Amino acid sequence: MATKVRDRVRHTLGPGAARDLLNGVPLGHPLHPALAQLPLGTWLSAGIVDLLGGHDERSERAVRVLIGSGLLAAGAAAAAGLADYSELHQRQLRVGVAHAGANSLAVGCYLASLLVRWGGHDRLGRRLGLAGLAVAGTSAYLGGHLAYRQASGVNHAEEVTHLLPPGWHRVARLDELAAGRPEVRLLGEVPLLLLRQGDHVDVLADRCSHLAGPLHEGRIVIDGGVTCVRCPWHGSTFRLADGAVAHGPATAGQPRLEVAVAHGDVEVRLSDAGIS
Ligand code: FES
Predict the structure, then answer these.
(1) How confident is the model at residue 272, as a pLDDT?
(2) What region holds the Rieske domain (predicted)?
(3) Are residues 32 and 92 in the same domain?
(4) Are residues 119 and 94 in the same domain?
(5) Could you identify the atom of ligand 1 that is nearest to the CA of residue 156?
(6) Ligand 1 centroid – CA 235 distance (Å)
(7) 232: CA distance to ligand 1 center in Å?
(8) pLDDT tens per residue across span 54-74
(9) Do 237 and 270 have their domain in common?
(10) Are 6 and 120 members of one domain?
(11) pLDDT at 246
């Protein structure tokens, strides 16, 4: 079921600017966790006013505005969350479903809270609001688990900069690289993607920053007039010239290595400029 929903969302969104926006590609950071702060913040504020505000007319109006703003923001956060959900692995999906279910329950509590308040049942409205806050807090915990424990939103290429040995290293002979075909070589523990075009070689970290897919198994494509590699797992597209993200779901660039070809040897080193 969770897989069917994921595939359905993926199919509906398709690739393109809307999905890139929902993933957070223009921000260079996942959008969903940033948007999720808005309903949590407004609902927490509503809870504080409900508990400490004195229950007068002004406080009640403020609470309704806060709850309504949170509901609007929750819609935007859900859209971004669905885009992220559409690319999750199987084990992550289960937590994703629980997270989405808890969020839906929180939204239901707050909608009911607003409705009964409009009906004049403020006390019940306050109870429903506080119940919604407890559920939203639990859901935030699940979201944190998904992001940090199960690494669904972290940069999977970040450790490359710590694992690569400093200085220049020979990784291949130029004449053993087939032109236009991605190849993989190990430098220490780090797999690298090499693409030769004529006498020029581009080298990126091979494990995709999104969820560590093997880029050397992906396709070389021309996007916006520049040569890119497209990840075989979820289609993130990285420019070979600088490792920048052309299309998500990845939001972090791919570490790029400096390349020198001397006496037929391809040598690489990591430089600060190579970390997007
Ligand atoms: S692992 Fe998801 S796009 Fe590469």
Answers:
(1) 63
(2) 168-268
(3) yes
(4) yes
(5) 1
(6) 6
(7) 7
(8) 788 889 999 999 999 999 999
(9) yes
(10) yes
(11) 95
Instruction: Give residue 4 CA to ligand 1 midpoint distance, Å.
Output: 19
Which residue, of 126, 149, 172, is where some domain finishes?
A: 149
Residue ending a domain, among 128, 149, 170, is 149
**Mean per-residue pLDDT of the chain:** 92
Which residues does ligand 1 sit against, CB inside 6 Å?
87, 208, 210-213, 231, 233-236, 249-250
**Within the chain, which residues score under 50 in pLDDT?**
none
- Owning domain of residue 49: 2-149
Determine the distance separating the centroid of ligand 1 and the alpha carbon of 239, expressed in angstroms: 14
Q: How far is the CA of 123 from the centre of ligand 1 (A)?
A: 48
Model pLDDT for residues 185-219, shown as the tens digit of each residue? 999 889 999 999 988 999 999 999 999 999 999 99
| 15: in domain | yes
Ligand 1 pocket: which of 90, 204, 210 to mutate (most atoms <8 Å of CB)? 210
The total number of structural domains that make up the chain: 2
Nearest Cα to 250, choosing from 6, 8, 16, 20?
20
201 and 142, same structural domain?
A: no
What is the model's pLDDT at position 173?
A: 94
